[in-house]
Amino acid sequence: MTDRLLRIDSIDTRYGESHILFDLSLAVDRGEIVALVGRNGAGKTTTLRSIMGLTPPTNGTITKDADRLDGLDPHEIRKRGISWIPEERRVFGSLTVAENLRLAAHSGDGDQANRFEEIYAQFPRLDERRAQKAGTMSGGEQQMLAIARALLGPETDLLLLDEPSEGLAPQIVDDVAEIIRELNERGVTVLLVEQNAEMALELADRAYVLETGEIVHESTAAELLDDRETMEGYLGVK
Ligand code: ATP
Known about the structure:
binds adenosine-5'-triphosphate, amino-acid transport, nucleotide-binding, 6-stranded mixed sheet, plasmid, alpha/beta, ABC transporter related protein, ATP-binding, Rossmann fold, single chain, 4-stranded antiparallel sheet
């Protein structure tokens, strides 16, 4: 039996008159890393915006566990354990690591002091750099801080990551992949949006390919990596 965490069922999403997502369905089981890959402009970010309630679908349903998410405000969706890291990462460059984390924790309930120590234990590199301004850190370290920020506030069991490898050198991409793997091993389920299909597929259990707003392929990540036709045809990977 599968343990379904997130289910998107036949959604359509529009920006005003522009129809972007067409009858899109996908599912993420608890404990999985699922990759959503596709070319520039395919609608990957719009899918994440739809889940978070930022660009709500005009029809179809989104559920997490037994809860309907579509129609809820983004902060209500955040409270249901879903956290989103946008492409731009959203760290405050002129603030220190500690200040960035304190700001992120502000909206949370419960004992945040313990949470900081948990986060520092989980990310020793941030611990060493508590007093460093985030803008002076490497891209990989900033991504680590963005992930740490996303884990503060309400308890998170599903992380939506938008292009975590963007703009990073290959070595750093490997570091970020390792962070995602470790998080997953600690029980966080991940929906990973990537243009870097190879990075995403090496990390993921299952994958969906999105092309102009439609899911055109669904399989295990390993099967997709071996499927040269789909890799070349939809993802431009030679
Ligand atoms: P990328 O990797 O380039 O961000 P993507 O797969 O994430 O691509 P989206 O950002 O979801 O794609 O964009 C899907 C389509 O929606 C594109 O054609 C884009 O131009 C359009 N789009 C995105 N945001 C808006 C907006 N605010 N208003 C109108 N159209 C938009």
